Amino acid sequence: MNWQIALRGFRSYLQLEKSLSLNSIEAYENDVRKLIDFANAENKHPEDLRLEDLRRFITTLREIGLSATSQARILSGIRSFYNYLLLENEVKTDPTELLEMPRVGRKLPDTLSIAEISSIIDAIDRSLTDGERNKAILEVLYSCGLRVSELTDLRISNIYTRDGFIRIVGKGNKERLVPIGKPALDQIERYKQQLRDHQEIKKGNEDFLFLNQRGSKISRVYIFTLIKSLCLKAGIRKTISPHTFRHSFATHLVENGADLRAVQEMLGHESITTTEIYTHLDRSFLKETILKYHPRAKN
């Protein structure tokens, strides 16, 4: 079996059997292509690679300066690739089985305080045509802890205003209901009344909530650019992205006593261990909690 046939089959497997998003599929493909470049240099097919070959592959990743996190992500993609080949009986053994993953530290991203989130939202110039839309974008992003792709894909038909929920189609086309606060719902209504209801909408985009000036679904790139520019205006020097709002959403919930399982449901995580990454708490909060609730810590 040659590499290109294997890669095409892997793509179909991810799309049809795993129901992954286009972005996830492309990420997996990019991981495998790095292995293909390595194997082609040694004139080897997928079934020819052994554990020692993959160890040398890891060494090449390290030598070109990829971090342990990047190496681990690539190897995770390659493990999925060989899992597919095993299922299809294209290989007899999995060379990744005994491969040690690079040690990755749990580096937590920056989080925003409630005051910082307010200052970013307040930096929006609401006198501009797109001001009410941009405010609605950030209100929904923080109110619901959405991934940026979930935000851009949000449909009007999936907003249940009376019940205070939105329906989200997340990773792997898995659906979940997420509570949405009244300030975010009110801002959505203002955006619709003042801008969206008066736009000429491109065919096929009628149900998407957030539209650009051309009447098409807003892009992920725009959300990143918007947040970056607002942070500069607000004087916030942290490394901020749309994901920072998701991280802050979860952190603030846990700091205020939300159940970890409930946060897991709202974020759409399969595993509780993934949710734990979003629940780092400052030492003062931990100290307060222990002093308040531990029976041997009370005076």
Q: How would you portray this structure in words?
A:
- The protein has 299 residues and is mainly α.
- The chain folds into 2 domains: 3-87, DNA polymerase, domain 1, CATH 1.10.150.130; 114-288, hpI Integrase, Chain A (Orthogonal Bundle), CATH 1.10.443.
- Helices cover 54% and strands 4% of the residues.
- The chain has 13 helices and 3 strands; from the N terminus they run H-H-H-H-H-H-H-E-E-E-H-H-H-H-H-H.
- It has helices at residues 3-17, 22-41, 51-63, 68-87, 114-122, 131-144, 148-152, 182-194, 220-234, 242-255, 260-267, 272-276, 283-293, and strands spanning 159-160, 165-169, 175-179.
- Strands 1-2-3 form a 3-stranded antiparallel β-sheet.
- Helix 1 (3-17) packs antiparallel against helix 2 (22-41), helix 5 packs across helix 9 and helix 6 packs across helix 10 (242-255).
- The longest helix has 20 residues, at 22-41.
SSE order and pairing:
Elements: H1 3-17, H2 22-41, H3 51-63, H4 68-87, H5 114-122, H6 131-144, H7 148-152, E1 159-160, E2 165-169, E3 175-179, H8 182-194, H9 220-234, H10 242-255, H11 260-267, H12 272-276, H13 283-293
Antiparallel strand pairs: 1-2, 2-3
Helix pairs in contact: 1-2, 2-4, 5-9, 6-8, 6-10
Strand element count: 3
CATH architecture of the largest domain: Orthogonal Bundle
Give the neighbour order of strands across the main sheet. 1-2-3
SSE order: HHHHHHHEEEHHHHHH
Proportion in helices: 40-55%
Would you tell me the structural class of the helices and strands?
A: mainly alpha
Which stretches of 5+ consecutive residues score pLDDT under 50? none
Query: How much is the average pLDDT?
Result: 85
Name the CATH superfamily assignment of the largest domain: Intergrase catalytic core
CATH class of the largest domain: Mainly Alpha
Nearest-angstrom radius of gyration? 23 Å
% residues in beta strands: under 5%
For the sheet with most strands, the description reads:
3 strands, antiparallel
Query: What is the distance, rounded to the nearest whole angstrom, between the alpha carbons of the first and last residues?
Result: 71 Å
Q: What do we call the CATH topology of the largest domain?
A: hpI Integrase, Chain A
The number of domains is 2
Number of helices: 13
User: What characteristic shape results from the CA principal axes?
Assistant: elongated
